[in-house]
Amino acid sequence: MVLSRRVLLGTAAGGVLAGCVPGTGSTSSAEAPPNASPAVSTSEPTPSPSADQPVLRLAVASDLHYGEDGTDYIRFTEELIERLNATHESTPLDLVVLNGDLAHAARWLDDVRERLQDLRPTYAVVQGNHDEATEKQWQRLWGHGFNHTVEVNGVRIVCPGTSNAAGDYVCADRSWLSTELDEAVDAPVIVAMHITPVAWTKHGIDCPAITRLLGERRNVLAVLNAHDHDEYGIKTREGVPYLFGARAGGHWGTDFRGFRVLELFADRRIETHVTDGRRIRGSDSLPPRS
Questions:
Q1: What residues form DSSP beta bridges with 98?
Q2: Based on CB atoms within 10 Å of each CB, which residue in 70, 134, 160, 167 is the most buried?
Q3: Helices and strands (H, E) in the chain, number of each type
């Protein structure tokens, strides 16, 4: 795996990615999380994958809701980490995206970060409505603000915030998102956001300016959504596939706790499946966007 210098790698086992200062497109100059190491060198070129090898392999898990009353959230967290580590051991993951609602409230976020030190793959975090942190708190914990971008193997994972400290559902910042997509030029882009930007789910909200922007950028290959615990399929808007991944915790939703695995190939096709860590619950092949 080759990471760009936009990214800082940290934590003892896997690593937390600290991305960019919101809206600047530059490496964060804020103090990194306690275990952070210096920026990763990019002196070695990215190897050219063979046609049958993915350029990027990632897993996305969301809605852990650590600290929620009435749930066995410690066990849920331990099982998620165990299953992601087993997936990584079987076929290495370049990245794990934790797509929001890591905690059920801000007071639990420090505990979540401590437990995530047992996660072996490198991970990136996305802000969710239940995390209820201020941007200053988020910066202290993860080394970046609500809006951030990471780059892995030439693929940009753009992560806009879709909530605030009050837990409101908000549309992504279109100006910031447009700038990040402009900076990608023609590089492949995957967007990860917690709140669904279309009200085609019970808890989604309509953000037509965002879905239109993503549809216009042909290098946006997929959007990773969360928040809707009972969704683990794929929906399409403006030619862009929106991928849901069930839930990792919480008290409601799918009848299993799982996560999604995505493989992106050089021709920009995507192979993806949802798993509970034991068996596949659904799989899809997505052709390149035309």
A1: 61, 125
A2: 160
A3: 5, 14
What is the Cβ-side half-sphere exposure of residue 248, based on CA atoms within 13 angstroms?
A: 31
Count CA atoms within 13 Å of residue 277 on its CB side.
19
CATH number for the domain spanning 274: value is 3.60.21.10
Q: Mean pLDDT score of the chain, rounded to an integer?
A: 86
Parent domain of 12 = 8-286
Lowest-pLDDT range of 21-25, 55-59, 136-140: 21-25
- pLDDT of 228-257, one tens digit each? 989 999 999 999 999 999 999 999 999 999
C-alpha–C-alpha distance, residues 128 and 181, integer Å: 21
Residue 2 lies in a domain: no
- Residue 220 forms part of a structural domain: yes
Provide the 10 A C-beta neighbour count for residue 289.
18
Q: Are 128 and 100 in contact (CB under 8 A)?
A: yes
The answer for 227, left when phi > 0, alpha when psi is -120 to 50, beta otherwise, is: left
**Residues sharing a CB contact under 8 Å with residue 170, sequence separation 6 or more, in sequence order:** 161, 162, 163, 164, 195, 205
In the beta sheet, which residues pair with residue 164? none
Q: Is residue 124 part of a domain?
A: yes
Task: Name the domain count of the chain.
Answer: 1
Q: Distance between CA 62 and CA 246 in Å, rounded?
A: 8
Specify the pLDDT at position 19: 42
Nearest Cα neighbor of 148 from 9, 26, 10, 11 is 26
Exposed/middle/buried for residue 283 (C-beta within 10 Å: 0-12, 13-18, 19+)? exposed
In a domain, 266, yes or no: yes
Q: Measured between alpha carbons, how far is 129 from 143 in angstroms, rounded to an integer?
A: 19
